[in-house]
Design a protein that fits this description.
Elements (H helix, E strand, L loop, with lengths): L6 H32 L7 H29 L2 H17 L25 H8 L2 E5 L6 H12 L2 E5 L16 E2 L5 H25 L9 E5 L2 H7 L3 H11 L5 E7 L13 H7 E5 L1 H11 L3 H10 L3 E4 L2 E4 L20 H4 L7 H12 L5 E2 H7 L8 H13 L4 E3 L6 E3 L3
Helix pairs in contact: 1-2, 6-8, 10-11, 14-15
């Protein structure tokens, strides 16, 4: 962290820092000495000695806190001291010499060795969730919308500030929370937790084939606000972070800071870094390159690229989304395949085969979740919402089409 002190204040702060630090250690030694002395004194004097020891220890604690605050304001003292000493040594040991230092200019167009050009491929390869960090105007929403159009699976968005044209290419029943409806978001997140538990049971009984076709990608805009407004938001992100990947329930949470607290993971920073790919946009990416990676050249490379350059974990990424608009938004690749390619039994699980077979036997008729529960033993105990998810998944892949929405959503076969 760089110091914001004026040079005229540096000496004074250094003296205060040294005094506070030595005062802390002195107080600790005196406190231990008093405790040792009290052990050998009479009983009536022990409370006084103990009280004095506690008082001295409290003074030391406050001095230690003062030293920490001063150290933060001073910045990297050791590094500055080393550089100052090296300059002093050169000036005093070679008084007649002149040092000519040529600093090469940074080529901001030179591609870094570990450059990523396809963040979606990187995220899918890692099989992790996404934590997206960026300030106002850094392009969080644009990147998230791009990601949702490429990642595949059913996309669900929790966005209390969504404008009418946002997420226009999605089924609007999957855009939850418009106009600040946090109650709807909280209710939906609660259902997500129930769905996750249902998938755990299904996979335990029927293996991976039992949950095929139920993949989802859930996006939570401005997650710190959801943490404040929705009781289910914290358990939602914790359970999906640790268990959702195995059941193909991936999440993307957005925030304006990369602390664990902003993502509802207080005291659980390890989960944030082990279960999420951290995408840092704008100044957050540049700060990470400078402070964590200690790479000023990378910082300048990011700065020169504007919004199209950012960090994905420890890797720089370049992706130009300036021309990506409503006309270029694409549906996930899974929806572009024809019926003939998807009718292979190997690509349909047992539940999907039952639905497709019913549709082919009843062309033009609408199948509802309630009807399927009554006519099929396999779906008898299944949750209607899970059945509707399968309906939607089949329609997204070009197998049939959905009719109506919400609790009235149905499915019918169509070529």
């Amino acid at each position: 962290m760089s110091s914001d002190l004026h040079p005229s204040q540096l000496h004074q702060h250094l003296q205060m820092y040294a005094c506070a630090k030595w005062s802390f250690w002195g107080s600790l030694i005196v406190s231990c000495g008093l405790l040792f002395l009290g052990a050998s004194q009479k009983a009536e004097s022990k409370p006084w000695i103990l009280g004095a020891s506690v008082g001295v220890l409290e003074v030391g604690r406050r001095h230690r806190q003062t030293a920490k605050l001063l150290q933060e304001s001073l910045g990297d003292i050791d590094r500055a001291s080393r550089l100052n000493f090296q300059t002093w040594a050169r000036n005093n040991t070679q008084p007649t010499a002149q040092l000519a230092l040529t600093v090469g200019s940074i080529d901001v167009n030179c591609k870094p060795d570990n450059l990523i050009t396809d963040p979606v491929e990187y995220i899918q390869k890692k099989q992790k969730h996404v934590a997206l960090v960026g300030g106002t105007g850094d392009g969080k929403s644009t990147f998230t919308q791009y990601l949702s159009s490429k990642i595949g699976g059913r996309v669900v968005v929790y966005d209390s500030d969504a404008k009418p044209d946002d997420w226009a290419w999605l089924d609007q029943k999957d855009v939850i929370g418009r106009k600040g409806n946090f109650k709807a978001i909280d209710t939906a997140m609660g259902k997500d937790l129930e769905t996750l538990e249902d998938l755990v049971q299904l996979r335990g009984e029927g293996g991976d084939n039992a949950i095929a076709g139920r993949e989802r990608f859930m996006i939570a805009e401005e997650f710190p606000i959801l943490v404040d407004e929705c009781d289910n938001s914290t358990p939602w992100i914790k359970r999906h972070a640790k268990r959702g990947r195995r059941y193909k329930q991936f999440i993307c949470a957005l925030a304006q800071n990369d602390t664990a607290e902003n993502f509802g993971l207080q005291g659980d920073k390890d989960t944030l870094y082990s279960c999420f790919c951290l995408v840092r946009l704008g100044q957050f990416g540049r700060d990470y390159a400078r402070t964590k990676l200690k790479d000023p050249q990378l910082e300048q490379w990011l700065k020169a690229g504007g919004k199209r350059r950012f960090m994905v974990d420890d890797c720089p990424c370049e992706l130009d989304l300036s021309s990506w608009g409503a006309g270029s938004r694409e549906q996930p690749e899974t929806s572009s395949r024809g019926n003939e390619d998807l009718l292979s039994p190997q690509e349909l699980n047992e539940y999907e085969q039952i639905i497709v077979a019913w549709g082919q036997e009843h062309p033009g008729e609408i199948l509802k979740a309630r009807v399927l529960q009554q006519t099929s033993q396999q779906f008898k105990k299944d949750d209607p919402e899970n059945i509707r998810i399968i309906f939607q998944s089949l329609a997204d892949r070009g197998l049939g089409e959905v009719v109506d929405s919400g609790d009235r959503l149905g499915w019918r076969w169509s070529k």
